[in-house]
Each structure stands twice: as C-alpha cells, then as structure tokens.
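tool=predict chain=A
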Amino acid sequence: MNRLACCPILLVLSLVPMMADAAPPSTDHQMLAGTVTRVIDGDTIEVQLGKRRIPVHLRGIDAPEPGQPWCKEATAALAQMVLNQDVDLEPLGVDDRNRRTTIIFVGEEEVGAAMVRDGNAWADRRHLSASDTELCELEADARERKVGLWALAPRDRIAPWEYRRRLLHRHFTDYSDESVAHCMEAAEKAHR
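tool=predict ok
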C-alpha cells in the first residue's frame, strides 16, 4: 500500500521539499501557491511548486476520458481557466488511483466546481464526501441548462467511470435524469 495513501499528513510533508523557493502557505489554511505549467486532461494539471512540477488531480470531479466525446472541450476549458495562472492548492491526499488530489483555486474560484458548473465534468460520486452536495447541485444545474457535455446526445455523455467500466464490461448507466439526492446517495455508498 502506498504510504501517502495511509496518512494524508505525509502527503503534505512530501510536498515541502518540492516547495523550495515557493510562496509560504497561508497560516489560515494548508494552502500552497504555485503556477499551472500544463493541463494533462480535463481534471488533471501540472503545477510548478518551487523547483518541481507536480501533477495533481482536481478533487471531486471526473472529466471525459481520451476517446470520449467532450474530452478535448473539457481539457481546453480547463486550460483556458488555469494554464500559466497562479493558483492556490489545498492538498487533500492520494486517491484510490494513486493521484495527488487537491482543491485548486484561481483567485476565489474553485476550479473543479467551475468545471462541473460549466458542464465540462461530472461530480465524481466515488470521491465526494457525504456532506459535499455542492458539486452534485452544480451538475444537476448544468444538466438542466444543457450546457457543455449535457448538450450532447445521451449515448455521448457517458460518465468517465462508466466509460472505463464499459471498456471492461460493455454496459453503462445513463445519469441524464439523476437527482442531487441520488448523486449524494451514490457518494455515501462509495464511502461505506
């Protein structure tokens, strides 16, 4: 098992050497300051922290995978929002896919929430906390407004985790009419 996955404090401590010459974190929060040097895909970026470039995944969202409809658009939307921008990161830990997971802010805007709000990503039910309803609400609103990937035909808006599963098992769930309550139920079930 990855030692960082066992203890989130180790993740924060593991970032300390990477922050040489980086701006000190805020005393109010465990925030780190960096600059986005690359957008890997619609939910993963590379951030310059001091002298090191670190790949990080945006907490609580899942954007279309390569080969899925809206992957290029989601990646471009994230790039427009963060590429070469100074950002604040709140490190949260390492997820089950061994990715450093963070909340990213450009100014006061939470980037992951903006991606879901604009229809460029799903609320990732497997990685939401039971009390985190905002991303589910933003997704429901984007679906209702038919923005971003929600303007696509149902067969083209397969959730990324379903797409990955479909590659293995050949079936998926249509989330087009899902309620906020159902989204949160799925998030709670994932944490049991």
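The longest strand covers residues 32-41. The chain has one domain: 3-190.
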